[in-house]
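User: Can you help me understand a structure? I only have the sequence.
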Amino acid sequence: MAQINVSNLSFAYEGSIDMVFDNVSFSIDSNWKLGLIGRNGKGKTTFLNLLLGKYEYSGSISKGIVYDYFPYTYSKEDMTKCAYELMEQWKPNIESWRVMCELPSLGLDVEILYRPFATLSFGERTKVMLAVLFSGENDFLLIDEPTNHLDKEAREIIKNYLAGKKGFILVSHDRDFLDACIDHVLVFNRVEIEVQAGDFSAWWENKERADKNAIAENEKHQKEIAKLRESADRAKRWADKNENTKIGFDPIKEHDRCLDTRAIIGAKTKKMQSRVKSFEKRIMHEIEEKEGLLQEIENVTDLKLVTLAHHKERLIEAKNITLQYKSASKPIIENLSFEIAQGERVVIDGENGCGKTSLIKAIFTGVNDMTNALIHKNDELTITGELSVASGLQISYINQDTTYLKGTLKVYAEKQGLDYTLLLSLLRQLDFPREQFSKDLQEFSEGQKKKVLIASSLITPAHIYIWDEPLNYIDVFSRMQIERLLLAYKPTMLLVEHDVTFKEKIATKVVALSREN
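Assistant: Let's start by predicting it. Here is the structure, written out as tokens:
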């Protein structure tokens, strides 16, 4: 057990005037199960890279700790190798028997180490890499979003696996996953960094309580500031009024005055103005102190949505549908029935490979202008049974893929036919940094790219919103914003999403798929 002390840490990327960290200090314990929480772009992955020594920085971070990072990287050429060959590349001097001992806890057999890496599913690759990660001794492990693109079953296995480990930092935006795996939180707030014992829910409960107190204090300070400003203004007006009496007078109304009184009034006014300036200076000092007490609270801003009403109540209806790709030997979905009515939020649930995205593709075959974009010409998807989509249905769609995003936000908005100003406004509400607006989308983090897709979908009026894993890489605060939006406006939706808490909150119906469908 060792302390990792971060002292006066400052860092900015080369060529950027924006500080990622500015003179921050905190301490964590290498024996903790630490959850790292913060908005997209707040520096979570950057901090992990600083621990790994990838960037130059000012300040200090404790030396003598051995760090290892998930996920490991691999090239196209590596895909032909087996994991047993890649282990030494990932973790030099690794002892293979240690990896083999970790595999059963992850639901894997030893033989998986000898299969070509390309043949492994996303879940299997993640599990193998975690087994390698935890096969060292006394390493402090940096685990960066291990659940992206994983189905419910794989998440549960990894969640239970990490719950039995310690000595790591976990970056995740899945609240259920964090609660199961961590015993401390490291939070990158807007203006400060916070370390606290407990899981995510305990921290959030404490935060909500503290925010209520801070809001009350802020209101009190604002009232005091208003009174002080009013006093300063009143004193200034009083002095100005006296000064004005020096110049000119009415001999009838002010018969007791003469020209000699001007000098007397001037002398008195000078003293009065001197006192007023001293008073104003003291008041402004008090105002600055009060404003220094105002706390910047992490607000979860309410978003807005404009939906379209359709003349039909039932928008999508499937009766005993079977889906099969031309190149496949058996159907991916068989004899499935469901319907989506206006106002329903339907979640497609199931393990990876059970046909969730294929079902979305099938629905788009009823919308002519989207078909060619979503069905591969060389691997045609055939549909049998009854699948009806309401005529004239307007769909707002979020794809899993972000690789096609390029150019500036303005260029992107023009290509997509979006209101540029509205897009920027919604991105700001999702805490998107203004300095990113002029950059190329290819420079954005994955979380920021996802926010662009979500904002684009939300400003597109539609009868139904179809989102395929929209929350991958999206920070927990933005997830809460989106939850509140969907619960408030009740749009018709079809979603594929693995975030347990999100699904429980927003789903009105679940369509469960399995490989046996």
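Now, to help you interpret it: The chain is about 40% helix and 20% strand. The longest helix spans residues 200-244. Let me know which part you'd like to focus on.
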